[in-house]
Amino acid sequence: MRGIILLFVGCMTCSFGAPAAQALTGEEIVAKMDKFLTQAKDQYFIYEVVTEEKGKPPRQLKFDVTIKGTKWRRIEYMEPGDLKGMKVLVLDTDTIWTYLPAYRKVRRVASHAKAQGFLGTALSHDEMSTVTYGGIYKGKLEKEDDKNWTVLLERREGSGAPYKELRMVIRKDISSPINVEYINDKGEKVKTETRSSYQCKANNEVCSPRIMVYTDHTRNGLKSTLVQRAWKVNQNVPDRFFTVRSLQRR
Domain 24-234+242-247 has what CATH class? Predict the structure, then answer.
């Protein structure tokens, strides 16, 4: 009899002993993603881009990009020849500068121009300037499974976020997005982004997709595919590299 009682107590302990881990909220998931995306002190990439549009030959370009902190980003175009030396400096989502080598002048990108396609690609200044999301969008968990979260990011009031909503599928193991839907003020899906072939460095604390594909559904299926050709982490890039004055230096 005593053995039966002990067995019963043991089974009760198995069933009701430790509480299940509490699920993360959408806001917590976005904060976790932002933290993971910016864990590196700085990152340097080289990308090759192929843009395809119906009825037109493919267009190619090549650029490098240096990222530091949660906002700063600097891009320099390497190919084709007519774009070589053009630079873009992002200080935050509202402050973007470009350097035009033909004129040797630095100009600020106007607010109304940020949503436009950049250099004929499916990307805009808005996508290029967004490094983290929690400050401009609030997250709402829609569903999850063993591998992914699906989170609806809704524009925070007064934030100036470029889209009304983003719907993100985020990998749980690396807290990084693999699919993003961009939704305008009319509730229309105007753009889709996929990120794939992730690789990791720095003891798997920094991860990056080798391939990104942007499709603009408003421009005849315009699609730009970015392939990562080089990636360096934590090179101790100085802050002065991210200044307007530095854009004019060779």
Answer: mainly beta
